[in-house]
Amino acid sequence: MFTGIVSAVGRVEESMPQPQGVRLTIHAGSLDLSDIRLGDSVAVNGVCLTVIACAPPRFEVDVSAATLAVTCGLQAGDPVNLEKALRLSDRLGGHLVSGHVDGVGFVQGFEARGESWFLRIRAPGDLPRFIARKGSITVNGVSLTVNEVSEDCFEINIIPHTRAVTTFAGMKPGDAVNLEVDLLARYADRARQWPEA
């Protein structure tokens, strides 16, 4: 589990094809890897990945073909938001994030409004039904609060700090982004569908 509070921005340095996916070498930037062990989880652009090798300041992960098919932003050269897995003693600064991406959205607009930035994203398929005004959503691993929701889009206000310490600094219209809806919304929807006993 994660919180959606990004610890550092890294970069995918290498992508090596594997029989069932790719192996990524990631430069961790300022992320402290001293407590990372083989088998630990790291969220990379919102995708929960297992560390298979670690030689600071780099670590390696395998990404399955199934994960690659439903995510974006994991190509060689891509900047990536990084977060180590949550410990039970940690503060929950964002919201509970599983690192299981629900779909890829597309940036419709990203523009300055005063000191903040206005971000509008089109969500794919049936994801909008899981997105609520003033609810939480994860965009490329960043926990954010939804300001408005329409039929297939949602809007977020990005504060200067968040833009400065994430990959959002380079975001532009047309960019693809990994989306993870709030866990509670998923379970509420599942409970609604379950037949009464």
Descriptive report:
By secondary structure, the chain is mainly beta. The protein folds into two domains: 8-84, Elongation Factor Tu (Ef-tu), domain 3, CATH 2.40.30; 103-193, Elongation Factor Tu (Ef-tu), domain 3. Helices cover 11% and strands 44% of the residues. It contains three helices and twelve strands, in the order βββββαββββββαβα. It has helices at residues 65-69, 160-164, 183-193; strands at 8-18, 21-27, 41-44, 47-55, 58-64, 79-84, 103-113, 116-122, 136-139, 142-149, 153-158, 176-181. A six-stranded antiparallel barrel has the order 1-2-5-4-3-6. Strands 7-8-11-10-9-12 form a six-stranded antiparallel barrel. A hairpin with a 3-residue loop joins strand 10 (142-149) and strand 11. The protein starts with 7 loop residues before the first strand and ends with a helix. The model has no long low-confidence stretch (mean pLDDT 94).
Mean pLDDT: 94
* The CATH C-level class name of the largest domain: Mainly Beta
Radius of gyration: 17 Å
Main sheet attributes: strand count, strand direction, barrel closure:
6 strands, antiparallel, barrel
What's the arrangement of strands in the largest beta sheet?
1-2-5-4-3-6
Number of strands: 12
Count of runs of 4 or more consecutive helical residues: 3
Give the overall shape: globular
Number of domains: 2
**Percentage of residues in strands:** 35-45%
Order of helices and strands: EEEEEHEEEEEEHEH
Q: Which regions contain 5 or more consecutive residues with pLDDT less than 50?
A: none
CATH topology (fold) name of the largest domain: Elongation Factor Tu (Ef-tu), domain 3
Helix content: 10-25%
Span of the ends, CA to CA: 32 Å
Structural class: mainly beta
**Architecture (CATH level 2) name of the largest domain:** Beta Barrel
